[in-house]
Amino acid sequence: MVTLGDLFDNVGDKASIAVMRAPAPGQRTGVDGDWLAHVALINGVSWHPRGLFEEATIERAGVPVSREQVMAALTTALTNRGAPAEFQIETDGRQQQLVIPVGANPELLVRDLYYNRTDQHFTATVAVPQDGVEVARMMVSGKLVSTVQMPVLNRALARGDVIAAADIAYVKMRETEVRANLVTDPGQLVGMTTKQGLRAGQLIQASDLQKPLAVVRGALVTMVLSHGGMQLSAQGRAIDQGSLGEVIRVSNTHSNLTVEATIDGTNHVRVSLGGPVALAN
Q: Bigger pLDDT: 93 or 77?
């Protein structure tokens, strides 16, 4: 409430007399000289306007509640009503600022919540109760948008770097914006190498990655042929490059014959009697 002491000086024990409702926290209101003269007269205060345009502005201090606090309260309330596991809130139009009195406890209460699971729209009142009285409140309406946690890099990587679990962070993204070629499972990143330099925070495409090369083109490799209890080995040179489990062509450095072999280790390939094709180099 606005008191005589807020409007006039030297009113003694009449200072605490309430004369009007205070504006909302963070708001202001104006009163003209006629109204002030009337209030002074009925309360026995000696005061007269000094001119025709005498007026006063009454402003109430307030502390704004952040949008993040409001969204957190709404998220909790909507989750308790059966909202999707991952979502973000889009409010209708420009959201008004919730301002509370100085010294008030900014504990938010969401009431009168209506949530339609079919179209994901909602309406609610966000209030700030204090000693059983709502000192501030506002209406909020909007809709829920389903989101997913997308893995991204938390640091820049150069071409050929191996991605470790410690290199992965997460960003929230609209489910409808996730393209088919984006990697959504962090398990598909760990242990892979980059085909090109990637920025921190960048969404990763499957085409940006490859398995670590176990054999590079032109490298000397050990060729092993196993048959029954017998094992033969020879030296070869890789014509192709590849990762573990991939089949590449290898040229025998002694006979110059080319065979197909499966990579089973670093610079190590396995030749099978049933699978490889021997070719004249």
A: 77
